[in-house]
Amino acid sequence: MANSAVDNAIAFSRFAFIILGYIRGLIYGHIRYSVSEEMDIGAFIGNIAEDLRLNLPQLSDRKFRLNSDDGGRYMKVNLDNGILSVRERIDRELLCGQAAMCTIPFEIILENPLAVYRGEVEILDVNDNSPTFRDSPIALQMSEAITPGVHFPLESAEDPDIGLNTVAVYAISSNEYFSIKAQKTEYGVVNAELQLDKPLDREMQSAFQLVLTATDGGIPQKSGTAQILITVVDFNDNPPIFDHEIYKGNIREDAPQGTLVLTVKATDLDEGLNAELTYTFSKLASPTVLELFSLDPQLGEIRLEGELDYEEVNSYSLNVQAMDHGSPAIATRSTVLIKVTDVNDNPPEIKVTSVTSKIPENAPPGTLITLINVIDRDSGENGQFHCDIPKNIPFRLRNSSKNHFELITSKMLDREVVAEYKVPFLARDLGSPSLSANETIQVVISDVNDNAPRFGASSYNIYVMENNSPGSSIFAVTAKDRDMDQNSYVSYSFVENLIQNFPVSSYLSINSMNGTIYVLRSFDYEKLKNFQIRVQARDAGVPPLSSSATVNVIILDQNDNAPVIVSPSEQSGSSEEESVPQSAGQGYLVTKIIATDADSGQNARLSYHMVKATDPSLFKVGQNSGEIRTARNILASDATRQTLFILVKDNGQPSLSSTVAIHIAVLENITEKVTETGNVLRNSEHFTDLNLYLIIIFGCTSFLFLVIILLLIGIKCRQNTNISQDYISSSCCGGPNYSFNRRPEMDETLRYPGTGRMMRAPVAHHYSVCLSPESAKSDFLFLKPCSAPASQANC
Which CATH architecture has domain 129-235? Predict the structure, then answer.
């Protein structure tokens, strides 16, 4: 009855501990369940959806799933109701061996939004194994000289279960000589020893057959038995005695084969063969221990024979016995505890769980990219680690929980600068020497429409020859968009404006796909010399972005206009004649041909040529000026009517020309007659803007020149206060002769305004001028000096 109460109390404590752990797990975002081993397939473990307060209809949409390295084989989750159940029968002893705690970790992952819940399932031991003895029967030899109270070590029973379900008590069949003494070690192992309670007498009874029963503490209890065969011999009555009841030693897990772990030593008070000892491992030693360690039977040295791994087993418990050579032999047992010292032989292990395959370039800082789990199987500083990524990338690590990291963005991204990152993730432990592991995380940046198309230049100049063919292409603009896919598809169009009060679409068209500009009409340079349009490039993003460029269309002149003779006018015919006096000398200006050309540049550069004449030797024409002058003096024998044919041609390719006929009458005894010749305009409608500008410029220049002359004469007159007018005589040419004399006493300083210079005037000056015969043919008064005053009378 007392045992039942104790068992109930223990069971209640275990239940309370499990419930307390489960509540603490919920508080810290960590769920914990427990399930007994050997449960049927489909057995209920826990309702994850209910415990995490998840919305059942959304489990499938959010990709509710179980993620577990070890538990996926043994557990499954129902997407319809969120219940975690057993997938395969669980054998705790096969899964965790003799470990005190057996758990299966798992993760629950949901997306949209991302949520990760971690938990674990504890596998509870059930009493499904009975204690067993490796050897049965157990043969013992005892000397009759052994005194009561001596203990004989027995083989312990093995039970794969743990805790209360493992071996708890030993019992022996009823007899008057022997009893069982059980002793529980600090590691929870119960060792059984056979105690002699009454002196033996071989002559009375030389052998004993006993039944040893091992019973575990499970509910219901299970037990196993072994026979003990005891032979009483005579007479080695002192057992070996070890120096220490328990030996303790340490060895590094990387120790080489043959390394001495420790030495055990026992002594025997007997003499001779009864004192000679042999050391052996107890039969309780597992095959793994026998493969890892060796024991020298004579020296008691325990050496390493295999490879240790701290992460698999960090300590070993060995039973060593010393047996003398007496008859019968007596053995004594001691426990050897070997602790394995960890060395840094395991680099960190990195597991990357990708959250998304692409991240948009406009993702805000702090956007989650991937989950990273790092585990180091070493312990202490060897199992601690530091994780890092490069500093020069727009990402950083955030520690979400123990051993779990999140790779997030740290700044804004730009796909046009870097379209893909390969982020090296480095995990380095704190051991010495330090070990590390690395993993490359690929991050692909997806494009957003954040770049407008860009032309190669802000403005373009297009040169188009006039009289072009409509429908031909004249230019192609190109805009580049740094975005990709749809965001980089560029279409072209004109920004509407007017050209000579007509829309640009009536002059030009543009291919919206490739930016080729086509002309829709033939241009005339004389009507339109240039115009400006704007071309817009627009991408196909959402929202679309655009930019524009200016296109200057410059019309090039073509030689398509022949020279037009303005004077003499062709509309009035050639009936009027030019007159020239027979007394005219060589170089006499007869008339001047004025012609214009609507073209420009070389196409409007005119030259004048005499192609036919009554007397080619009498007149000549200025090639560039168009002036017709006498080439020699007119003789009496020359015809009184002369006809000249003048060709005016431009410098274009090919050259265009016009012809005019000039009739010249040679008159006798004419000294002053202003004739109406062909150089007078007969029809004003042939005037062009160029003619008008030339006349205005020529008139202004002449007027300015005349004003300067008058100012200089006025300055001279003011400087000379007494001007003697000695005489005014006729010139040698029949015109008046003007002579100005300055008195010798007038010696003064002349000042030139604006120059800062002063000059002394000469003592006396005499100026004599006369009218030139050319004055009769010009609007200006031509003056020339007379040869000498003395000859004036003879002129």
Answer: Sandwich (2.60)
